[in-house]
């Protein structure tokens, strides 16, 4: 297998998750529902498949949220742990999202998850602090949005290193598998500028809008979510190992 991907420290950031609303004093999801399932859970499901495949081919994988689909592991919201946002997960749990490797890991220092004035701000900053803490070489965000319209697949990047090249590769491979029209890659939005302080390539894939009926029909289908994951993997693979066929090989 191409050595450029083996050992590469990749952080997956499935965006969203339950957070404590200070004004209402209740736990709330950040994304709208997709067929009665919060978009926050859709992003973590897509990220979990990407995590598993990249780990198999030798990448050193991390995640900002819990990727285990366990209903017995309960977070501080009294909901399953994989429902919670990054700051809640990182406050109480370990570095790795896999039970196979994280049992001996120490908990993270408070500075990672306790910076910011509101819980939403702490959530955003915690993801960046965690990326810096582990020395992430690539960050891939998985998002669904609440845009009024959905004009096609969208991916944004921070312009560091090969971020632009990898963004083009990922959106091309995702579009090939999902048959969705890719929008031209672009720089980060204002609300994504929290990543500007990280000196590593950051990509954020918008998988669609929860306000668009056609996209919602797609996102609730398992095959579509799987093809999104496979497209992200293939795009990263072809960017890092352009001379290798896509697949698991040594």
Describe the structure.
This protein has 250 residues and is α/β, with parallel strands linked by helices. The chain has one domain (9-240): Zn-dependent exopeptidases (Aminopeptidase). 35% of the residues lie in helices and 17% in strands. The radius of gyration is 17 Å and the shape is globular. The model has no long low-confidence stretch (mean pLDDT 89).
- CATH topology call: Aminopeptidase
Total DSSP E strands: 10
Strand content of the residues, in percent?
A: 15-25%
Q: How would you classify the helix and strand content by structural class?
A: alpha/beta
Spatial sequence of strands, sheet with the most strands: 6-1-7-10-8-9
What is the CATH C level class, in words?
Answer: Alpha Beta
The CATH superfamily bears the name Zn-dependent exopeptidases
CA distance, first residue to last residue: 4 Å
**Total number of helical segments?**
7
Structurally, the number of domains stands at 1
